[in-house]
Amino acid sequence: MNGPFKVSDLTFKQDLYTKDSHIKISLENITILVGPNSSGKSQILRDLDNFFTTKSNVKLLNNISFDFPLSETEIDSMINEFRKESPDPTADPDEVVISAPDLKNDGRPLQFTIKRTYTKKVLQNISFDSVLPAITRLFTVRLDGRTRFNLLNSKQIGNLTHPENFFASLFTKNTEREKIRNIIKNEFGLYCYIEATSGTLNIKMSPDEISSEKETSLSKEAVDFFHKAIPITEFGDGTQAFVGLLLAVASLPHKIMLIDEPEAFLHPPQANHLGKYLTQFAEERKGSLIASTHSADFLMGCLESSTHVKIIRLSYDRKIGTVKELDVSDVLKIMRDPLLRSTDTLNALFHKSAIITESDGDRVFYNEINRKLQSIEKNIDDVVFLNSHGKDDMHRIAGALRKIGIPSACIYDLDIVKIQSNQWRERLKILNVPNSEIEHFEEERRFLLTELQKIKKDGQPDPFTRQGLPFLDDISCERSYKFVSELAKFGIFVIDIGELEQWLKTLNVGAGDKMKWVANILNKLDSINADADKDVWKFIIEIGKWISNPNRFGM
To answer: CB atoms < 10 A from the CB of 5, how many?
Structure first.
């Protein structure tokens, strides 16, 4: 079949994602669903599967549109993929018996009859309810974690003329087996075969090679070969997950592939490669790959293999849902930028929000503080802490994430006020501070810098790192605290007492080397409780308020 057969549009329900109108998003061949846990990604895949069959129990989608073959020849070709001759010689010649191999290993092939007059009805744009489900479900596969666990179980050989399971179907297709075998050899250094010499169909791996013809024979050479081969069930979960998913996709002419967390059990490089392979399958078949993922590596594999990718980010928090189509060019910039790539910035796609810190030590400390706040239910839920390589590039990370709709706060030491005027303005602009506020913030930065320099004395602690705003005179202190508070409204949080090492002074950790300080403070944190009303605890809670505020500035 040469024509396209894919999902072209998704319309999300009005009452779940917006009070104004339904949200309609046009899709490409590859659609990747990202977002935090419990945001609806898996439910979207279930909705699609249900929509294609009974159209019941659809919770988040209002409608689905298709790109569908328009010629009678192409639709006949689709039907004939699974056509089975009727055993009844008196059967209506307009009726075609359909028998599709079992994929989910329940032993029940999908069987029904379809009238050839459906072809004309499709061409006459008869509604989805009366026509499309009968055809669509034949070419749709949904694979989730539970399904994938059973994919590689032994299966009966059965009638190979009309295969009843996907092992049997693949057993009859030398070209498809060879393609998968090459992929798996490149990935694991072993050849993958379907073995039938034991009376059932099993997947085995071997360092040695045997021809496709001998693979499917019952010759002594085949028996001896497979006696030495290793059952796939003796390999780790990652190998089984990778092999099982590829075999399931390749075995049948699926056009719409719905895959939930394809990266499960895989190492990052394997997740990346799987994204590339699944993308190639979808494009070769002119179909749809719609995958829900928590893996930046899988996402990058898809983006590296195709220009026909849509990324949809879902979120659901405090009974407020959002669905946002991300600009792929913005995601590619993050993926290709060495700084953003090295700081794992894309990982924020799979969390509700992000907090950017100056260094790895800062990241570890604030992450632990937020974890401790969970004991008093004041923690920031599902936030990822990312660190830059110093304060000079934090705005680039936060700015890139804000551009794709992820609330991202920055934590700066007080010495950020030493920055050059043009650099300060640039940071504020990237962090979406309005032009009308930038000059005001520049004036306040210069004021605070001057006031801190006034109290700097030889032999005394550095006011920028060891003293901070409390050491200013009353008038200067009040004005400077107002400045810091105004910055916080835009997700820019400045440590008013100086720097990281000034938090929790009562623990008597001292200053000095930051990483030693972090190690020492972490050892002592276990012995104290979080206190929401003071010190670093209050600081993190204030950041959480900005993140959770739907009317926050800076986005």
So the answer is: 24
Domain boundary among the residues 291, 326, 361 is at 326
Closest CA to 504 of 386, 379, 368: 368
493 and 397 share one domain: yes
Question: Is residue 95 domain-resident?
Answer: no
| Distance separating alpha carbons of residues 471 and 356, to the nearest angstrom | 27
Q: Say if strands 353-357 and 408-412 run parallel, antiparallel, or are unpaired.
A: parallel
Residues 180, 472: Cα–Cα separation, whole Å: 70
Classify residue 57: in a domain, yes or no: yes
Q: Is the dihedral of CA 446, 448, 451, 452 positive or negative?
A: negative
Residue 471: both structure tokens together: 């050491």
81 lies in some domain = yes
pLDDT at 126: 43
* Model pLDDT for residues 296-319, shown as the tens digit of each residue: 999 999 999 999 999 999 988 766
Edge-to-edge, what's the strand order for the sheet holding 309-317? 140-143, 256-260, 288-292, 30-34, 309-317, 320-326
Are 320 and 426 contained in the same domain?
no
Check which CATH number belongs to the domain holding 272 and give it: 3.40.50.300
Q: Where among 326, 361, 379 does a domain terminate?
A: 326
d(CA 468, CA 415): 9
CA distance 508 to 520: 10
In a domain? residue 247: no
Residue 512 · residue 499 · CB < 8 Å: no
Give the residue from 272, 334, 331 showing the smallest Cα distance to 307.
331
Which residues make Cβ contacts (< 8 Å) with residue 73, sequence separation at least 6?
none
Q: Are residues 410 and 388 in the same domain?
A: yes
- How far CA 62 is from CA of 23, 130, 310, in Å, comes to 9, 18, 19
State the Cα–Cα distance between residues 128 and 176, nearest whole angstrom. 32
Q: Looking at this protein, which amino acid is placed at residue 293?
A: T
Query: What digits encode the pLDDT tens for the residues 4-42?
Result: 889 999 998 865 555 556 788 999 999 999 999 988 999
Instruction: In whole angstroms, give the CA distance from residue 181 to residue 241.
Output: 15
Is the domain of 320 the same as that of 346? no
Both 308 and 433 in one domain: the answer is no
Number of domains in the chain: 2
Phi, psi of 303 (to 5 degrees): -65, -30
> Same structural domain for residues 135 and 266?
yes
Q: Does residue 397 sit in the same domain as residue 281? A: no
402 and 474 in a single domain? The answer is yes
The alpha-helical segments, DSSP class H, found in 166-295 are 166-171, 174-188, 212-215, 220-228, 237-251, 268-284
Q: Is the pLDDT of residue 370 over 50?
A: yes
pLDDT in tens, 152-196: 999 999 888 888 889 999 999 999 999 999 999 999 999 999 999
Joined tokens for residue 500: 């990281």
CA distance 145 to 259: 9
Rounded to whole angstroms, the Cα distance separating 524 from 517 reads 11
Which residue range forms the structural domain that includes residue 501?
338-548
Which of the 8 DSSP states describes residue 461?
Answer: -
Q: How far apart are CA 413 and CA 499, in angstroms?
A: 5
What is the spatial distance between Cα 123 and Cα 3, in angstroms, rounded to a whole number? 14
